[in-house]
Amino acid sequence: xxxxxxxxxxxxxxxxxxxxxxxxxxxxxxxxxxxxxxxxxxxxxxxxxxxxxxxxxxxxxxxxxxxxxxxxxxxxxxxxxxxxxxxxxxxxxxxxxxxxxxxxxxxxxxxxxxxxxxxxxxxxxxxxxxxxxxxxxxxxxxxxxxxxxxxxxxxxxxxxxxxxxxxxxxxxxxxxxxxxxxxxxxxxxxxxxxxxxxxxxxxxxxxxxxxxxxxxxxxxxxxxxxxxxxxxxxxxxxxxxxxxxxxxxxxxxxxxxxxxxxxxxxxxxxxxxxxxxxxxxxxxxxxxxxxxxxxxxxxxxxxxxxxxxxxxxxxxxxxxxxxxxxxx
Length: 328
Hints:
This protein is an alpha+beta fold. Helix content is 55%, strand content 13%. Strands 1, 2, 3, 4, 5, 6 and 7 form a 7-stranded mixed beta sheet that branches. Helix 2 (17-25) packs antiparallel against helix 8, helix 4 (58-77) packs antiparallel against helix 5 (87-104) and helix 5 crosses helix 7. The two termini are 48 Å apart.
């Protein structure tokens, strides 16, 4: 369960849960009311995805469209367009159409995300292909069975018409979860590290490394296990905590870190590093014990005295420090 919660942003098929809930619920509760409930769940998930995660789960969009169309038809036309006992195949067909469009023209989804500046986390194509293949086979079989007027027993009727669509979406959910588990166990875990470097008057503030005091490094460096979208908030929290307990801070002005660089390092443990700067107006405004201000030229002249990360970040820090010095 901890693994699923950690990779919940990558388990894209969780967007199928409103569809699965609706497919099961319409056989246990009044169909129109259940369609409305399923649509409400899909819309709520969609809004959370867009407003909080800055993304758009395709399956939430698929469920909102498919369930929404069936709900509106049943609400305003009764059984005129969706006859009795045909709601599940009708809903399955609407979902199949959405999945088919995405499989045949995935650029529509990507362009939509770009237009509204939403994050692109997954193509959803594997699960969408499974839906297209199995739902198409299922609906074609139903079509021929209906044309032959083959009578179904209640057990066969439930299994062939109602149970199979639910199983298709459950299979997609399981495949995605298993895939994430396999990827997480077989691939080396990448660490997410936040580094914060104060800058002032074109200089950068460094402190001795905790493991090797002869090496200078960023004063704030921490391993962060949360999702990337929350790293900015976490960086701000780190600054607030330090400022609240620091006896070296002579001013109570609030400072905010700014992300200037993201990069990956290779080695025994791959790491994704986010470099933040902390602009301050005076050198005594934000200090650590044994810290010192350096110019980037100091790093270039004596690289052995500075960490490997600082040598990689030197050019970007120099550029940003000079720009902040001129335009602050």
